[in-house]
Amino acid sequence: MDRALDDGVDDGIDDGASYQDQRFHKLDLAGRRLVGTGFYDCQFESCAFTESVFQGCRFVGCTFKECNLSLVQLPGSAFSATRFFDSRIIGVDWTQADWSGISLGQPIGFERCALSHSTFIGLSLPGIQVKDCLAADVDFREADLSRADFSDSDLEQSLFANTDLNKADLRTARNYRIAPGKNVLTGARFALPEAMSLLYNLDIDLSEGK
After folding, report:
1. What pLDDT is stored for residue 4 in this prediction?
2. Of 174, 112, 185, 172, which is closest to residue 146 (Cα–Cα)?
3. What HEC string does the chain produce?
4. What are the pLDDT digits (tens) for 7-39?
5. Rounded to whole angstroms, how far apart are CA atoms 44 and 96?
């Protein structure tokens, strides 16, 4: 069912309701609080959720395309097998969400998104995908990001400390600053020249030749 709407009025999304296999187009819930609503295998396209509050909501198998979720609040909301494409998701504290029931092998994923100034501190999100994203000043400290895919993402000023990056793929990531002695990098994949930044975090004297 297509619940497309083009006049900027909310499309009758109700607290506590459940929506399955629906497409929401240009839905405008900016600044609205939504409580206990479930979305299953739904598509959100060109929707506005800026400064919205999703409280105790559930998103399973959903996709967001060209949406604005900047400064959205997620207290107690759950995400599973949910993907975000070409969206603005700036300044979001993902630690507010409920990750206790996330299925193994079904992480969230971001592609061509703006994620700057967000926090994932302490979360267990093995296999998360952050591909071709602007992820500047993002807090990844204490997080389990094993097997993460950071392909083509800009990680300038993002924080990594006690972060599990076991088997993570950073070969085409850029502008990262990761201290080898303060993070788990077993099996992580890097590529030159960006991988030179790993050396700058070591207490060594690096010089050119003799």
Report:
1. 46
2. 185
3. CECCCCCCCCCCCCCCCEEECCEEECCECCCCEEECCEEECCEEECCECCCCEEECCEEECCEEECCECCCCECCCCEEECCEEECCECCCCEHHHCCCCCCCCCCCCEEECCECCCCECCCCECCCCEEECCECCCCECCCCECCCCECCCCECCCCECCCCECCCCECCCCECCCCCHHHCECCCCECCCCCCHHHHHCCCCCCCCCC
4. 334 457 999 999 999 999 999 999 999 999 999
5. 21
